[in-house]
Amino acid sequence: MALAKSVYNLLFRRTSTFAITIMVGAVFFERIFDQGGDAIFEQMNHGKLWKHIKHNYENKDEE
Amino acid sequence: MIRNFTCDVITHSLRHAFECPVCSTQGRCSKPQLAAKMMSLAARSGAFSPYMQATAFTVAGPLKALVPGVVVKTEKILLNPKKQFLCRESLNGQSPKTGPSVTVSINGCAGVRFAHTDVRIPDFSDYRRPEVLDPKKSSQDSSESRRTFSYLVTGATTMVGVYAAKTVVTQFVSSMSASADVLALSKIEVKLSDIPEGKNMTFKWRGKPLFVRHRTEKEIATEAAVNIAELRDPEHDKDRVINPSWVIVLGVCTHLGCVPIANAGDFGGYYCPCHGSHYDASGRIRKGPAPLNLEVPYYEFPDEDTVVVG
User: Taking the first listed entry, what is the main subcellular location of this protein, grouped into a coarse class (chain A) (predicted)?
Assistant: First the structure.
């Protein structure tokens, strides 16, 4: 409850801080959402993507 | 002056000084249906009593006395069922117009008291949060958490909305500016030294044939000397070329879109075999059904030896 009260007083009480909270939150939400979506995609397609099978086709002599 | 002794709906709890001639009781009156006036006030006012009385007519009301009198004669309410009941028309002549009366408009008297005891208050408890279900509890105790929750939900929704709007706008804007590989496909670079003088070469550019023609000095002089007035689509030769040695036109006949044949036709330029349109060495229509000159695309010479079309 103390946390909720401080969050309210600090972030939500004024419209200016509320808007800033939304903007900053959107940036973090975008990172989490996009990277989470990519991670789920790669997990579902594990072993099918190029980066998973790339080592099979790389020439050893180049290294 | 019987009416001086009748009791009022509002003041029926007053004790009568005399026996009420209507309900025949001493003390509390049990006939609230008969509304008359403030008894004592009217009784004392003497000559002014007609102007001081609040209500001079009987108004039938649904109220019943909380405490019934000693003698209860009948519960029956004498009502005329055909008479309109408690509407503005029916009460128009019954509310006071003189004396201490309040009006809301020119003929709208406000002295009628509507006693709506049968109105039900809807139950909104399905829509209330559990903290405020109990009407006896102070809502201020839970206002902090309710308020924070409301703002949190609003903020989270707006945040997702901002993200969605940003994604949509980004997609549209990025589709408007084509990427470098797409732009590179739309251009063609031609090495001019491969084309000998008097020859025409055809390239594929944006899915269409592109004619690059290296003109001889004689052709340049001939096209520059053409009288514009006798052309179907008047255009001077120097408006169609950057370097007079090189004519670069789209190889699409302006009639129906066939590909003309180079170095053919009556005028030594292009000849469309489909319907017989003759173009000269500048790509201008001279004879046949085509209405317009061959189209000149945008091109530039980065150096002496190359031309970039597109």
Answer: mitochondrion
